[in-house]
Batch of 4 targets.
Target 1
Amino acid sequence: METLPHQLLNLSEQAALERLVQSDEPLVLLFPQNSQALLEQQFGHWRLEGSLLQRLLEKLQAVIQELREIPAFQANMDLFQHLLAFCYYPLGSGSSDPTELPRGHRKLRTLLLLKALQTVRAHWQEKRKVSRQNRSAGSQSYCRLQELTIDLRYDFIVVPAEYTANNCEGPCWRPLSARIPDYSSHTLLLLDMQERGTPLQRSPCCVPVKYSGMEIIRFTGEGMQVTTYPNMVAVECGCR
């Protein structure tokens, strides 16, 4: 993935840390074999305090409330509670600390749990969106968003096991305005030529016209790095 366009964030900079907390983008967590030792090196340099820490806890609480609606999340509540016990979140709510972890350890785990749960939420929302679109389409065939899941189950990837990249499928027919809001006058002219039997070297195609990004967290000898990759998930389709 290093060959893809990306932006690398340095979490030793406060602005980069704030951006990571504020972001709702789904992400991939990469843990090499020596990640535990690398994590231990970072705890002493971790600076997550004040209003930024409060914002982190608020976002974690909000995403937990949303995920409680998902049956799969409800079925794994015991696992979630176990993970939460290693975070700063229980201390923030007045609970005791059964793990006796230093606060720096707990804050880092809280941030990682938030990003993992945001990824779960994004995956769930995307599946619901595609499902609604397909139900509304019925038996009609036209250019629309289709779910496409990519398997990420490698030894060094912890979260997620897969991610929904999506794809666009279906023919481009007139009229476009009823089903496909994103079209151009050029596309309409091509469709008009196609209907009149004029040969075209390339007929209008159903393609993604809007994307969302993805963040990747990896642990290296230089610390925890966050890389932002744009245009990783197709969210809207159009005819071009």
Note: The longest strand covers residues 223-239.
Target 2
Amino acid sequence: MTEKDYNPEQKQRKSMKKQEIASAPKKIVDTPQIKSEKVKEKDKKVTEKEKIGTPKEEKPKKTIAIVNGRSLPISTKYSVAICNFIKNKRIEDAISDLEQVLNYKKAVPMKGEIPHRKGKIMSGRYPKKAVEHFIKLLKSLLANANELNNPLINEAIANLASRPYSKFGTVRRKRSHIKIIAKEKKWKKKK
């Protein structure tokens, strides 16, 4: 048996299809009746699939919301202080507190050789540029957490990022990675 005669039935079927296509009259424009028939056929197929198909699976409910800030041009020292400042707060409360920092009404508590500020905290600063980036991230986190009931900021992590190369070696640029995670607060029942 040679390659040419390997599957003669298949060749015969193909040639028959070609002849049918060539002999069929070509239609340039579909008439409205033909279009409506095609639509009805599609509807029938869809209803058959719905009947046969498996029951709809519900998506598992989200329990956490995450937002990442990569290589933000802010000081890591300030980022760590702001992360500690917003941790264990509701997202809306954290945003309002940071807006007060922008207006110099509230200071971000910081450790180190920093002078005292007005209010209950010992020492702190008003890191305006870093706070603006954090507000953007928190608004994004709020949008990610729209399915959660009563979300709290559970983790706020600031890490050093790689410094960009500068033409002049003495210039030290700042970069930080920030990761904020919000979880749904579960109320404990009293016994």
Note: The chain has a mean pLDDT of 84.
Target 3
Amino acid sequence: MNVTSLTINQLSTAIIHLDNDFLIIDLNHSAEQILGLSSRQLVGKAVFELISGEIDRSLISQFIDKNGSTSVQDVVMELPKGSLTVNLIITPLNSEKSSLKNNCLLEIQSSETPKNIQKDLRLQQQSRVSEHLIRNLAHEIKNPLGGIKGAGQLLQRKLPADFPKKYTQIIIRESNRLSELVDRLLMPAKVEKSRLTNIHLLLEQALEVLLLQNQQHKITIIKDYDPSIPDLFIAPNQIQQTLLNLIKNAIEAVVQDMGQNNKTSKIVLRTRIKNQITIGAQQHRQVLKVDIEDNGCGIDKALVNDIFFPTISGKQSSGLGLSIAQSLVQRHQGIIELEQKNETTCFSVFLPMLLNQQ
């Protein structure tokens, strides 16, 4: 392995080393991952064989001759895994070695990366605001709630024996329910130890609980798992709470839509490893993606951009579930994203795989 190979393999960016005829001399691990092809399959081939459409090669050569970089936007690459739209940055190698003369480095960037960075930063900001608001709200509620419950209990003891206790029982019962909700809101602040955990086990446990609660509904569950995914170093209770919230929402969406048409109520649970994913401003070599997809009633377009804020919900509920889920995933350097298309709603959980090495 030459010095150039050693250097480019240290980079997380996808890099291809080209000769003066634009033939592939070498590529790093990141390029292999994003292209879905190995160096053995690509070395010696012309890079333009991968590109759909015409690129002005003479213009690129002029830039290289002048030792200048050039970029080409929104290039479609035809790969075994399908079409991939990318931005290409071509930089000449300024070397005195005759073997490297007129060689260049081709950097491959996803054309969606700048949009995704802005989107993820917005989601992270929403999560920080949400967590601060939720914790302040929970603290404000906790003390007076204890007073209401105590007053209800005292009133129940003071009432005559023949006086109906139904109203004081409602006060006490609802106070207990709200107290449990407040405790759950404050719980994420507690540190849970991370350990190697099988993501499919967490999905199955969450699914089992929720299906038991919805036995009366006919829902088709499709499990599209990648069995090769290794265990992740995560806080299992926090991620399981996240999955519970997301699957519960999916079930509620398909149940609400039942009877509206003749379609089969369906939920898809999907796990995949994704390469070269940017979360916020940080690029990760490998990321676990968990999709919870349903064909239910969907989410009002007016709510989509703010769906992770607390109290934002299209249902008659607190609207805190998604906000809490986003906060828990971001504690793992991950993020939850929402996509609606073709009459389906999909929440995707992204968790960096690098965490299983810590």
Note: The chain has a mean pLDDT of 78.
Target 4
Amino acid sequence: MRYLLSIVLVFTLTSCSSVKVNYDYDKAVDFSNYSTYNYYSDMQSGLNQLDERRLLRALDSTLKSRGYRLTEEPELFINIMSNEYRSAPRNNVGVGIGGGGRNVGGGISVGLPLGGSNLQRSIQFDLVDAQRDALVWKAVAESGLRDNASPSVREDKLRAIVKKVFSKFPPKVK
């Protein structure tokens, strides 16, 4: 029963707030030349310390599985920035009234938002060529955020964000 409940909970959380990702990269860069990375020492991610550690663990695991190594003198520096914001309600209903008679008529209608605004999180990943100090790859992920989520749900959510963001890294050369 507990297993079924956890599956339903994970499905509900992931279905309600999918991760949307936008990418950009320098087409002139040969990403096969990169094999090492590190994070900027003065990185201000905007995440709390616990979430930042969860995110970095997920990112390290993902990059390591693709053959990248964390080193003191990297070829790529990674910078992470995040922002929380409230999005406007997506659903609304229109209500109108009107009347008329004897060649005169009138009416009024208004749109009423349904539900409250949603708390969203935007996380930006910048990969910078360490030698040239030039941005070579960038991704921005947007997803729903629940402050009251358990640590395991938060870790799963951050892991899903990293997985989706880095599913297209390195970019395929055409």
Note: The helical segments are 2-16, 49-65, 151-165.
